[in-house]
Design brief:
single chain; 227 residues; alpha/beta; Metallo-beta-lactamase, Chain A; seven-stranded mixed sheet; 5 helices; 14 strands; binds nickel (II) ion; binds manganese (II) ion
Length: 227
Amino acid sequence: MKITFLGHATIHLEIGDSKIIIDPFISGNELASHIDVNTIAVDYILLTHGHQDHVLDVETIAKNNPDALLISNYEIVQWFAEKGINGHPMNHGGKHRLEFGTLKYVNAIHSSVLPDGTYGGNPGGFVINTSSKNIYIAGDTALTMDMKLVPLGSPPLDMCILPIGDNFTMGYEDAAIASDFVQCNTVMGCHYDTFPPITLDMEAAVSHFKSKGKELLLLEIGESIDL
Ligand code: NI
Ligand code: MN
């Protein structure tokens, strides 16, 4: 599995022949000005919730990738269906089998409204189980006891992608506790530095994780890792 950080909460995954983007917010992110949203190739677009900083580039990417399937909760998939985008709706606790593996939509504590004010359903995260690797993408969320359910329903996780920027989501201290709850000590941080209220003290965050025996990966925007 190849994981590429595209800034904010935008993650690109390559799993076998499948290319997946999660929460595309690139054209509105000054820090990601070197990423051209028009060059992004995907088979799937996964959305954790309806906020602008997670859905801004969906229409552009869907237009450039007309066969891509949008996957999110029912309300968000309906909203994009009215714009002609092909989707598969899910809801919390549900699993769906896809060519790259099994996708589960899990609980998050946050809010969710679409850019025009339409109700966006409840926000969520995703657990992806493949034949080789297992990852959890929390989406925007507070630390929640529901995270303890993730490892009960999944083979051991190889990585969790957690928001760490604080203010709108949990900060890095709670993210370290979240990594305990999901039983995964390899954490990739996201949702930091994009806006002034979520500026991260990177050194403090990395050393906090180290002090707990955990690893916090903070990728450059555009950087990839092979899991
Ligand atoms: Ni949000
Ligand atoms: Mn957000």
